[in-house]
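[Meeting: bench + compute handoff]

Bench side (C.D.) handed over the final construct sequence. Compute side (W.E.) agreed to return the predicted structure before the next meeting so the bench team could plan truncations. Sequence as handed over:
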Amino acid sequence: MNIACIGAHPDDVDLAMGGTVIRLLSRGHSVLIYDLSNGEPTPFGSIECRKRESETAARIMGVSRKTLELENRYILDTIEARKMLAGEFRSFQPDVLFTHYPYDAHPDHTSSCSLVEASKFYSKLTKSDISGDPFFPKKVFYYFPNHIHLNLTPDFCVDVSNEMSKKVEALNAYESQFIKKGNGAMIEEIRTINAYFGIRIGKKYAEPFFSRESLDVDLIKELF
């Protein structure tokens, strides 16, 4: 299957579902990470270093990633952004999408979720000026928000016990965000979150996911 994982910024997908990305790849799926922005400006980064860090993290996970150059801090669900992302979906033809949870403290994250949902619909439109042939992804799943501590019950969790060390290695590649500015606690927080959801399914580590629609057990089995 083709799997598209969409985040507002470099490191969003890695933080929320890096272990799942690694597991999906090990199952033979084709996975592509879309970073909607290059993540800049930030207090301690630069365009060049963020690009280098995200490429290093992708290489550690063994995944492909693409930056779509929307404006960090000002990502909006606009018609033009929908057409652009729908064109990407038509090109890659993902069966399943993963993106931000609909509620989050970061406006870029909530806008990105709306953008992904709208672009999923736009991707199937006929008689449009969107590049490529109409295509409709089967399903969209949402990963856990890390900018707000919501009390959420996931629709399913993915055991990432075997993938956790490589996930942390990938996160450590983001030195400007988590290491140099003394924010290494963020990585430990993610490890704790994954340990909590791991306990809930009887595993060491797990990543939680959510769905607006009822789940097809055959689809979940095919994914994992």
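W.E. noted at the follow-up: The chain has a mean pLDDT of 95. C.D. will use this when planning the next construct.
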